[in-house]
Amino acid sequence: MEFRIDSSELTDAVAWAARVLPARSPVPVLGGLLLEAGGGRLRVSGLDYEASARIEVEADTARDGRALVLGRRLLDICKVLPRGVVECAVQGARLSVTGGEARFGLSLLPLDDYPAQPGLPAFRGVVDAEAFAQAVGQVAVAAGRDDSLPVLTGIRLALDGTAMTLAATDRYRYAVRTLEWKPEGGDTVSEETEGADVVVPARRLTEIARSLTTAGPVRLALDAGSIGFESDGTRTTTRLLDGRLPRHDKLFSLGEHAVAVTERAPLLEAVKRVAVVAEGDSPVQLAFAGDTVQLRAGYEDDVASQRLPALLEGTESMTVAFNPGYLLDALGSFDTDSVRFHLLGPGQRALITDREDGIHQHLLMSVKPLV
Questions:
Q1: What is the pLDDT of residue 371?
Q2: Within 224-349, where are the H helices?
């Protein structure tokens, strides 16, 4: 195998495929990246038992072939290569990488021990990569971190007609975001697979979404055990989690409640400001009344407060309090100028939305207000 390629293109391709490599693995070859050169193309592939990634880029291929090398070592080399054309060639039991006056040699891993790259599931449709990445980021903040409850570390992805719903919860908060997508017609989609409701590992889905941000339309593939995404020259898959997230429909149905509207950015900064005196999980209090909201945090001598404009409807006043970290995560996940708080009362559910149509919703449990 022998090829020539621009150093920046090689670095980007190696970095993209290396995302799925395990930090540690009892199987050494799973730390490898598979390089395949031929027909004016270079394909870089990586996988572990949960995910796979493959990218193809143009290259000047002088000699076709395949090589398996330690992926993270190759990535470290790529990051320090001089700018310009890089020459790579298999020489005996090594891959030589030459850029300018710098030359590196990497030991080859045994190709016979490397697992086959998993194929993509059946294609289901197309989604805009930028919109998808934004939606994943907005709900991922609510995903659980406790691996003893695996399903709560995932993001629910549900398909219904032209609507895609993403949702995540760690039992203390629940984020939901809807967006449009285009189902793929034709004979490849059967009646049994027209809709879908699966749970994808949040960390993996976040990584995938970020890597595809500028890819434009992305094809989504899905079956009972895995989900995949394909764009121009890239392909990635990850396994699904077993189980289902609790339904959010009843939780988000508040019945009669008050609504408070305030500007998002000033509120976000005010919460950060007053929360510096909040010890541990002590709450930040929001006291809505008339056309203002008074923020307060701390106890006894160590206290902080700030007043902001706000509009309250449905009651004369309402005081609620939230875990400051959860509230900051929620406010930071929105991108609108203002947010709406749908409030039942102290110690009860509170729903934060971006606007009246509520394509982005974040549910928090309020806690006991400060005394």
A1: 62
A2: 249-252, 264-274, 324-332
pLDDT value at residue 302: 87
Is residue 119 over pLDDT 60? Answer: yes
pLDDT on residue 357: 67
- Separation between Cα atoms, residue 132 and residue 138, nearest integer Å: 10
Domain that holds residue 32: 2-113
What is d(CA 283, CA 278) in angstroms, rounded to the nearest whole number?
A: 7
What average pLDDT does this structure show over 130-140? 96
Q: Is residue 145 within 8 Å of residue 201, measured between CB atoms?
A: no
β pairing state of 85-91 and 94-99 = antiparallel
Asked if 138 contacts 132 with a C-beta cutoff of 8 angstroms, the reply is: no
Name the domain count of the chain. Answer: 3
**CATH number assigned to the domain comprising residue 281:** 3.10.150.10
Q: Residue 255 carries which DSSP code?
A: -
Q: Which residues pair with 234 in a beta bridge?
A: 55, 231
- Helix 324-332 to helix 264-274 angle (10° resolution) is 150
Residue 280 falls inside a structural domain: yes
C-alpha separations of 301 from 216, 297, 304, 338 in Å: 54, 11, 9, 32
Burial of 356 (0-12, 13-18, 19+ CB in 10 A): exposed
pLDDT digits (tens, 9 = 90+) for 299-325: 878 899 999 999 999 999 999 999 999
For residue 100, being part of any structural domain is answered with: yes
**Burial of residue 14, with CB atoms counted within 10 A of its CB: 0-12 exposed, 13-18 middle, 19 or more buried:** buried
Q: What mean pLDDT do residues 19-43 have? A: 92
Q: Average of pLDDT values for 189-196?
A: 57
* Over residues 199-217, mean pLDDT: 92
Place of tokens 């009344």: 289
Sequence-ordered list of residues with C-beta below 8 angstroms from that of 263, at least 6 positions apart, any chain:
308, 309, 337, 338
Q: Are residues 270 and 342 in the same domain?
A: yes
Name residue, tokens 């790259």: 117
Query: Exposure string (b/e) for 16-25, b if CB count within 10 Å is 16 or more?
Result: bbbbbbbeee
